[in-house]
Design goal:
13-stranded antiparallel β-sheet, 375 residues, single chain, 2% helix, mainly beta, 2 helices
Length: 375
């Protein structure tokens, strides 16, 4: 029996030998090709998933060191990819939630029991904003579950770009290693649940869009030391919003949370936009932050209202601060995310220093102002 060597790396592939794929194979009826011609070659370890007639076809490999995985361990995964079609360079939208022709690739773990798949767990997504005609990073953090350690085998699977789009991956950049205190995006139930809360890393990883629009990074922020803030652009409806999944296991029944952010509103033409803090409907409503909760195919929305009742300062950052108590219904959902929305369409929403932190002190004096919302 070969003894497993368990270290900080669950998997690392930087030894792709000439003419071999080191265990990587194509899924479905797609084709896996190593790029070797001088015109194609950008890295000596490029593999291309081609002839993808379905979005779920891609490239896959069995993980060799699943015996090193322990329940509760947290791993960080990195990779680099780019997309092409027969027409040339292809782009994708890393911020959308729904699967369609704009979808970016993802990295998943497929757990196998016997001869059949048991689960498909998404562990990494493309980091936005997307760069055309260049390598794009993929990043994610995942916690080892009982399903993973009890599986007979686990496959890493790269797919989910739209059909007929070739996914090219630099295999040498794929690493799955134990998280450290320096791992970007680590959260805990006792601190801020929001990852990449100020985009200070210089990208918008972990952020998505509910509805329409895209995300850009805006230079500067509320603090003099802030390098970046997150800007939702190309909005068309008040329901379009920034969105991020949070750790739902932290939302225990009876727990209290404070949601806080610094927000600036600017019209698509670059002019300051002033909302009315007292308006509950209409085109001058101010931002709300809330929870989007999912279970199966159903979604529920909880709006958290701003307890800061100062007049909105146009052209400046304004504080949002609201509170919520977790009840049995919130705690029962499979996935929960935080969104920022309810601002007039065609207005850019710039967000900095957003947080969701638990409250353990006396909250009797804090206004709990929530309402059931709709998309």
């Amino acid at each position: 029996m070969v003894q497993l060597l368990c270290d900080e790396h669950l998997e690392i592939w930087n030894d792709l030998e000439k003419g071999t794929y080191n265990g990587w194979s194509a899924s479905g009826d797609s084709v896996l090709k190593r790029l070797t011609t001088s015109a194609e070659l950008q890295s000596p370890w490029e593999l291309s998933s081609m002839n993808r007639l379905e979005w779920y076809w891609g490239m896959t490999k069995k993980l060799d060191k699943i015996g090193c995985m322990k329940i509760g361990n947290i791993y960080e995964i990195n990779a680099k990819m780019r997309l092409v079609t027969t027409d040339g360079v292809e782009t994708c939208d890393p911020f959308q939630i729904h699967l369609d022709k704009r979808s970016c690739p993802t990295i998943s773990l497929i757990t196998i029991g016997g001869d059949r798949p048991l689960g498909n767990i998404e562990i990494a997504t493309v980091v936005g904003p997307y760069k055309n005609d260049d390598w794009n990073g993929m990043y994610g953090i995942f916690k080892v579950t009982e399903e993973m350690v009890s599986a007979q085998s686990i496959q890493i699977h790269i797919s989910k770009a739209w059909k007929n789009v070739d996914i090219i991956v630099d295999i040498s950049t794929i690493t799955i290693k134990l998280a450290t205190p320096e791992t970007y995006g680590l959260t805990s139930c006792s601190t801020n649940l929001i990852k990449n809360w100020g985009a200070e890393i210089g990208d918008a990883r972990f952020w998505k869009i509910v509805g329409s629009g895209s995300i850009q990074l805006s230079r500067g922020g509320v603090q003099p030391s802030s390098k970046w803030s997150i800007r939702h652009v190309d909005r068309t409806r008040s329901s379009d919003g920034l969105f991020q999944f949070i750790d739902q296991s932290c939302l225990t029944v009876g727990s209290f949370w404070q949601i806080q952010a610094i927000i600036k509103l600017v019209s698509a033409r670059g002019e300051a936009f002033q909302c009315d803090i007292n308006a509950s409907t209409g085109e001058y409503t101010c931002p709300i932050i809330g929870l989007m909760m999912m279970k199966g195919n159903s979604r529920n929305y909880l709006h958290v209202h701003n307890s800061v009742k100062l007049a909105w300062k146009d052209g400046a950052y304004n504080e949002f601060r609201g509170y919520l108590e977790v009840d049995q219904q919130i705690a029962s959902f499979d996935k929960v995310g935080v969104f920022v929305q309810r601002v007039k369409g065609d207005v850019d929403v710039i967000v900095d220093s957003i947080s969701m932190i638990p409250l353990t002190d006396d909250i009797s004096s804090r206004p709990l102002s929530t309402s059931v919302g709709q998309y």
